[in-house]
Amino acid sequence: MDDHGTDIHILGGYYNNVYEISSEVPIVVKIFSRGIHTEEDVLSEIEWTQFLHENGVNVTVPIILSGRSYIHNLTDDLFFVAYEKVKGVHIDINGEDWNEKLFKQWGKGMGTMHSLSKIYKGKYKRPEWNEHKIYQMSMDSFDSRIKEKWEQCIEDIKSMSKSIESYGIIHGDLNHHNFLYDKDEITYIDFGDSEFHWFAYDIAIAVYHASQTIKDRAERDRFASVFFNSFVEGYLMENSVNEILKHVNFFVNFRHLYSFVYHHQFSQKDQLNKQQLKYLKEMEQSLINRKTYLGVSLV
Fold first, then answer.
1. Exposure winner among 62, 84, 190, 210, fewest CB in 10 A?
2. Which of 247, 171, 241 is nearest to 206 (CA)?
Protein backbone atom coordinates (compact mmCIF):
# COMPACT_ATOMS: atom_id res chain seq x y z
CA MET A 1 0.00 0.00 0.00
CA ASP A 2 1.39 3.43 -0.85
CA ASP A 3 1.42 6.58 1.23
CA HIS A 4 -1.88 7.73 -0.23
CA GLY A 5 -3.78 4.64 0.83
CA THR A 6 -4.02 3.05 -2.59
CA ASP A 7 -3.91 -0.72 -2.38
CA ILE A 8 -2.57 -2.59 -5.42
CA HIS A 9 -2.72 -6.37 -5.59
CA ILE A 10 -2.43 -8.96 -8.32
CA LEU A 11 -5.55 -10.77 -9.52
CA GLY A 12 -3.88 -13.19 -11.92
CA GLY A 13 -3.98 -13.67 -15.65
CA TYR A 14 -1.92 -16.21 -17.59
CA TYR A 15 1.05 -13.84 -17.49
CA ASN A 16 0.20 -12.49 -14.00
CA ASN A 17 -0.66 -9.19 -15.64
CA VAL A 18 -4.03 -8.30 -14.08
CA TYR A 19 -4.15 -6.04 -11.02
CA GLU A 20 -6.81 -4.46 -8.84
CA ILE A 21 -6.24 -0.93 -7.65
CA SER A 22 -8.41 -0.20 -4.62
CA SER A 23 -8.95 3.50 -4.06
CA GLU A 24 -12.02 5.74 -3.93
CA VAL A 25 -13.14 4.21 -7.23
CA PRO A 26 -11.68 0.69 -7.52
CA ILE A 27 -10.48 -0.34 -10.97
CA VAL A 28 -8.94 -3.39 -12.58
CA VAL A 29 -5.86 -2.87 -14.74
CA LYS A 30 -4.63 -5.30 -17.39
CA ILE A 31 -1.04 -4.82 -18.54
CA PHE A 32 0.04 -5.80 -22.06
CA SER A 33 3.45 -6.32 -23.59
CA ARG A 34 3.92 -4.97 -27.09
CA GLY A 35 5.99 -8.06 -27.80
CA ILE A 36 2.83 -10.15 -27.43
CA HIS A 37 -0.09 -7.83 -28.20
CA THR A 38 -0.53 -4.89 -30.53
CA GLU A 39 -2.68 -1.90 -29.62
CA GLU A 40 -4.99 -2.79 -32.51
CA ASP A 41 -5.49 -6.29 -31.05
CA VAL A 42 -6.57 -4.80 -27.75
CA LEU A 43 -8.76 -2.12 -29.35
CA SER A 44 -10.58 -4.83 -31.32
CA GLU A 45 -11.25 -6.70 -28.05
CA ILE A 46 -12.54 -3.48 -26.45
CA GLU A 47 -14.77 -2.71 -29.44
CA TRP A 48 -16.32 -6.19 -29.27
CA THR A 49 -16.98 -6.04 -25.51
CA GLN A 50 -18.51 -2.57 -25.85
CA PHE A 51 -20.85 -3.91 -28.53
CA LEU A 52 -21.91 -6.72 -26.18
CA HIS A 53 -22.45 -4.22 -23.37
CA GLU A 54 -24.55 -1.95 -25.58
CA ASN A 55 -26.72 -4.96 -26.45
CA GLY A 56 -27.47 -5.98 -22.89
CA VAL A 57 -24.69 -8.46 -22.06
CA ASN A 58 -23.11 -7.97 -18.63
CA VAL A 59 -19.41 -7.48 -19.34
CA THR A 60 -16.58 -5.48 -17.80
CA VAL A 61 -16.40 -2.07 -19.46
CA PRO A 62 -13.09 -0.31 -20.22
CA ILE A 63 -12.67 3.25 -18.99
CA ILE A 64 -10.62 6.26 -20.09
CA LEU A 65 -8.43 7.58 -17.29
CA SER A 66 -6.94 10.51 -19.17
CA GLY A 67 -6.82 11.76 -22.71
CA ARG A 68 -9.05 10.21 -25.36
CA SER A 69 -7.77 6.65 -25.59
CA TYR A 70 -8.40 3.42 -23.72
CA ILE A 71 -4.71 2.61 -24.22
CA HIS A 72 -2.40 3.99 -21.51
CA ASN A 73 1.36 3.75 -21.87
CA LEU A 74 3.54 2.50 -19.04
CA THR A 75 6.86 2.15 -20.85
CA ASP A 76 8.01 1.78 -24.44
CA ASP A 77 7.28 -1.95 -24.13
CA LEU A 78 4.21 -1.97 -21.87
CA PHE A 79 0.74 -0.44 -21.96
CA PHE A 80 -2.43 -1.03 -19.98
CA VAL A 81 -6.21 -0.84 -20.13
CA ALA A 82 -8.34 0.04 -17.09
CA TYR A 83 -11.75 -1.47 -16.40
CA GLU A 84 -14.53 -0.73 -13.97
CA LYS A 85 -14.40 -2.99 -10.94
CA VAL A 86 -17.70 -4.88 -11.07
CA LYS A 87 -19.56 -6.49 -8.20
CA GLY A 88 -19.35 -10.21 -7.78
CA VAL A 89 -17.01 -13.05 -6.98
CA HIS A 90 -15.77 -16.11 -8.79
CA ILE A 91 -18.23 -18.94 -8.38
CA ASP A 92 -17.52 -21.46 -5.64
CA ILE A 93 -17.68 -24.91 -7.27
CA ASN A 94 -18.41 -26.38 -3.85
CA GLY A 95 -21.12 -23.86 -3.03
CA GLU A 96 -24.88 -24.00 -3.40
CA ASP A 97 -24.89 -21.68 -6.43
CA TRP A 98 -22.93 -24.22 -8.52
CA ASN A 99 -26.06 -25.85 -9.92
CA GLU A 100 -28.20 -26.40 -13.01
CA LYS A 101 -29.78 -22.96 -12.70
CA LEU A 102 -26.34 -21.35 -13.02
CA PHE A 103 -25.37 -23.64 -15.92
CA LYS A 104 -28.51 -22.64 -17.79
CA GLN A 105 -27.86 -18.94 -17.16
CA TRP A 106 -24.25 -19.35 -18.28
CA GLY A 107 -25.41 -21.04 -21.49
CA LYS A 108 -27.96 -18.28 -22.12
CA GLY A 109 -25.18 -15.70 -21.90
CA MET A 110 -23.05 -17.56 -24.41
CA GLY A 111 -26.01 -17.99 -26.74
CA THR A 112 -26.59 -14.23 -26.64
CA MET A 113 -22.94 -13.53 -27.52
CA HIS A 114 -23.02 -15.93 -30.46
CA SER A 115 -26.28 -14.48 -31.72
CA LEU A 116 -24.89 -10.93 -31.53
CA SER A 117 -21.74 -11.93 -33.40
CA LYS A 118 -23.91 -12.54 -36.47
CA ILE A 119 -24.74 -8.84 -36.72
CA TYR A 120 -21.48 -7.34 -35.47
CA LYS A 121 -19.68 -4.93 -37.80
CA GLY A 122 -16.61 -3.63 -36.02
CA LYS A 123 -13.90 -1.25 -37.16
CA TYR A 124 -11.27 -3.63 -35.82
CA LYS A 125 -11.66 -7.28 -36.81
CA ARG A 126 -11.16 -10.04 -34.26
CA PRO A 127 -8.61 -12.66 -35.38
CA GLU A 128 -9.45 -15.91 -37.13
CA TRP A 129 -8.85 -19.06 -35.06
CA ASN A 130 -5.82 -20.22 -37.08
CA GLU A 131 -4.03 -16.87 -36.73
CA HIS A 132 -3.03 -17.82 -33.17
CA LYS A 133 0.71 -18.44 -33.09
CA ILE A 134 0.20 -21.87 -31.51
CA TYR A 135 -0.74 -23.14 -34.97
CA GLN A 136 2.53 -21.94 -36.46
CA MET A 137 4.79 -23.41 -33.77
CA SER A 138 6.86 -26.56 -34.17
CA MET A 139 5.52 -29.76 -32.61
CA ASP A 140 8.86 -31.57 -32.81
CA SER A 141 9.40 -31.50 -29.03
CA PHE A 142 6.21 -33.52 -28.41
CA ASP A 143 5.70 -37.25 -28.24
CA SER A 144 5.06 -38.42 -31.81
CA ARG A 145 1.59 -39.67 -30.82
CA ILE A 146 0.63 -36.24 -29.50
CA LYS A 147 2.02 -34.57 -32.62
CA GLU A 148 0.04 -36.93 -34.84
CA LYS A 149 -3.19 -36.27 -32.92
CA TRP A 150 -2.62 -32.52 -33.12
CA GLU A 151 -2.00 -32.53 -36.85
CA GLN A 152 -5.05 -34.71 -37.50
CA CYS A 153 -7.28 -32.45 -35.40
CA ILE A 154 -6.13 -29.35 -37.28
CA GLU A 155 -6.92 -31.05 -40.59
CA ASP A 156 -10.35 -32.06 -39.26
CA ILE A 157 -11.08 -28.50 -38.16
CA LYS A 158 -10.00 -27.04 -41.49
CA SER A 159 -12.44 -29.38 -43.24
CA MET A 160 -15.45 -28.15 -41.22
CA SER A 161 -17.94 -26.03 -43.11
CA LYS A 162 -18.52 -22.44 -42.06
CA SER A 163 -21.85 -20.67 -41.99
CA ILE A 164 -23.30 -17.72 -40.10
CA GLU A 165 -25.14 -20.26 -37.93
CA SER A 166 -22.05 -22.24 -36.95
CA TYR A 167 -19.10 -19.84 -37.13
CA GLY A 168 -18.51 -16.41 -35.62
CA ILE A 169 -16.91 -14.60 -32.72
CA ILE A 170 -16.58 -16.78 -29.62
CA HIS A 171 -15.37 -15.85 -26.14
CA GLY A 172 -12.65 -18.47 -26.44
CA ASP A 173 -12.23 -19.21 -22.74
CA LEU A 174 -15.61 -18.92 -21.04
CA ASN A 175 -14.83 -21.21 -18.15
CA HIS A 176 -16.06 -20.66 -14.58
CA HIS A 177 -13.03 -18.47 -13.78
CA ASN A 178 -14.04 -15.95 -16.42
CA PHE A 179 -17.26 -14.65 -14.98
CA LEU A 180 -18.24 -13.01 -11.70
CA TYR A 181 -21.44 -13.90 -9.87
CA ASP A 182 -23.49 -11.58 -7.68
CA LYS A 183 -27.09 -12.03 -6.57
CA ASP A 184 -28.05 -14.26 -9.51
CA GLU A 185 -26.28 -11.94 -11.99
CA ILE A 186 -23.36 -13.07 -14.15
CA THR A 187 -20.78 -10.59 -15.46
CA TYR A 188 -18.48 -11.98 -18.13
CA ILE A 189 -14.81 -11.01 -18.14
CA ASP A 190 -11.55 -11.49 -20.07
CA PHE A 191 -12.33 -11.43 -23.79
CA GLY A 192 -8.66 -11.54 -24.77
CA ASP A 193 -9.10 -14.96 -26.41
CA SER A 194 -12.20 -13.96 -28.38
CA GLU A 195 -11.79 -14.86 -32.04
CA PHE A 196 -13.61 -16.20 -35.06
CA HIS A 197 -14.15 -19.90 -34.47
CA TRP A 198 -16.90 -22.50 -34.48
CA PHE A 199 -19.57 -21.85 -31.86
CA ALA A 200 -19.35 -25.52 -30.89
CA TYR A 201 -15.83 -24.93 -29.59
CA ASP A 202 -17.04 -22.25 -27.16
CA ILE A 203 -19.65 -24.65 -25.77
CA ALA A 204 -17.05 -27.43 -25.55
CA ILE A 205 -14.69 -25.15 -23.61
CA ALA A 206 -17.35 -24.55 -20.96
CA VAL A 207 -18.13 -28.28 -20.74
CA TYR A 208 -14.47 -29.28 -20.58
CA HIS A 209 -13.43 -26.87 -17.83
CA ALA A 210 -16.57 -27.42 -15.75
CA SER A 211 -16.11 -31.20 -15.92
CA GLN A 212 -12.48 -30.80 -14.86
CA THR A 213 -13.75 -29.87 -11.40
CA ILE A 214 -14.68 -33.55 -10.93
CA LYS A 215 -11.73 -35.89 -10.34
CA ASP A 216 -13.50 -39.27 -10.45
CA ARG A 217 -13.98 -40.18 -14.11
CA ALA A 218 -17.36 -41.89 -13.79
CA GLU A 219 -18.73 -38.99 -11.75
CA ARG A 220 -17.15 -36.56 -14.22
CA ASP A 221 -19.04 -38.18 -17.10
CA ARG A 222 -22.32 -37.97 -15.22
CA PHE A 223 -21.71 -34.34 -14.28
CA ALA A 224 -20.71 -33.42 -17.85
CA SER A 225 -24.03 -34.72 -19.18
CA VAL A 226 -26.03 -32.79 -16.58
CA PHE A 227 -23.99 -29.65 -17.17
CA PHE A 228 -24.27 -29.90 -20.97
CA ASN A 229 -28.04 -30.43 -20.97
CA SER A 230 -28.64 -27.45 -18.65
CA PHE A 231 -26.16 -25.27 -20.54
CA VAL A 232 -27.73 -25.99 -23.93
CA GLU A 233 -31.21 -25.39 -22.51
CA GLY A 234 -30.11 -21.86 -21.67
CA TYR A 235 -28.18 -21.43 -24.93
CA LEU A 236 -31.30 -22.32 -26.95
CA MET A 237 -33.12 -19.36 -25.41
CA GLU A 238 -30.88 -17.05 -27.46
CA ASN A 239 -29.41 -19.00 -30.38
CA SER A 240 -30.12 -22.01 -32.57
CA VAL A 241 -27.98 -25.15 -32.25
CA ASN A 242 -29.00 -26.80 -35.54
CA GLU A 243 -25.52 -26.66 -37.09
CA ILE A 244 -23.54 -26.57 -33.84
CA LEU A 245 -23.98 -29.58 -31.59
CA LYS A 246 -22.63 -32.17 -34.05
CA HIS A 247 -19.11 -30.87 -33.38
CA VAL A 248 -19.25 -30.55 -29.57
CA ASN A 249 -17.85 -34.01 -28.77
CA PHE A 250 -14.93 -33.44 -31.14
CA PHE A 251 -14.16 -30.04 -29.64
CA VAL A 252 -14.26 -31.31 -26.03
CA ASN A 253 -11.49 -33.74 -26.98
CA PHE A 254 -9.66 -31.04 -28.91
CA ARG A 255 -9.81 -28.68 -25.92
CA HIS A 256 -8.06 -31.30 -23.80
CA LEU A 257 -5.34 -31.62 -26.44
CA TYR A 258 -5.14 -27.85 -26.98
CA SER A 259 -4.76 -27.19 -23.24
CA PHE A 260 -1.83 -29.59 -23.02
CA VAL A 261 -0.15 -28.17 -26.14
CA TYR A 262 -0.73 -24.59 -24.96
CA HIS A 263 0.81 -25.14 -21.53
CA HIS A 264 3.67 -27.09 -23.04
CA GLN A 265 4.44 -24.35 -25.58
CA PHE A 266 3.94 -21.25 -23.45
CA SER A 267 4.75 -22.25 -19.85
CA GLN A 268 8.18 -21.56 -18.44
CA LYS A 269 9.00 -25.09 -17.31
CA ASP A 270 11.62 -24.00 -14.78
CA GLN A 271 8.97 -21.99 -12.93
CA LEU A 272 6.43 -24.82 -12.62
CA ASN A 273 6.15 -26.62 -9.29
CA LYS A 274 6.09 -30.41 -8.88
CA GLN A 275 2.30 -30.54 -8.82
CA GLN A 276 2.01 -28.57 -12.07
CA LEU A 277 4.62 -30.75 -13.78
CA LYS A 278 2.81 -33.86 -12.56
CA TYR A 279 -0.47 -32.50 -13.91
CA LEU A 280 1.07 -31.93 -17.37
CA LYS A 281 2.48 -35.46 -17.37
CA GLU A 282 -0.93 -36.88 -16.46
CA MET A 283 -2.52 -34.87 -19.29
CA GLU A 284 0.01 -36.27 -21.72
CA GLN A 285 -0.64 -39.85 -20.62
CA SER A 286 -4.41 -39.42 -20.85
CA LEU A 287 -4.06 -38.09 -24.40
CA ILE A 288 -1.87 -41.02 -25.40
CA ASN A 289 -3.84 -43.76 -23.64
CA ARG A 290 -7.46 -42.63 -24.00
CA LYS A 291 -9.41 -42.01 -27.18
CA THR A 292 -11.75 -39.47 -25.57
CA TYR A 293 -11.61 -37.12 -22.62
CA LEU A 294 -15.12 -38.08 -21.51
CA GLY A 295 -16.39 -41.60 -21.42
CA VAL A 296 -19.79 -40.52 -22.72
CA SER A 297 -21.11 -38.85 -25.85
CA LEU A 298 -22.86 -35.55 -25.11
CA VAL A 299 -24.85 -35.49 -28.32
1. 84
2. 171
81: left (phi over 0), alpha (psi -120 to 50) or beta: beta
Residues 6+ positions from 206 with CB-CB distance below 8 Å? 106, 107, 110, 174, 175, 227, 231
Q: Distance between CA atoms of 199 and 186, rounded to whole angstroms?
A: 20
pTM to 2 decimal places: 0.94
Closest to 52 measured CA to CA, from 42, 43, 61: 61
What pLDDT tens digit does each residue of the chain (299 aa) get? 444 556 887 877 666 788 888 877 789 999 999 988 999 999 999 999 999 999 999 999 899 988 789 999 999 999 999 998 888 999 999 999 999 999 999 999 999 999 999 999 999 999 999 999 999 999 999 999 999 999 999 999 999 999 999 999 999 999 999 999 998 999 999 999 999 999 999 999 999 999 999 999 999 999 999 999 999 999 999 999 999 999 999 999 999 999 999 999 988 777 788 888 899 999 999 999 999 999 999 99
Neighbours of 178 (CB within 10 A): 19
Residue ranges of the alpha helices (H) in the chain? 39-54, 100-117, 144-158, 199-211, 217-235, 248-266, 274-289
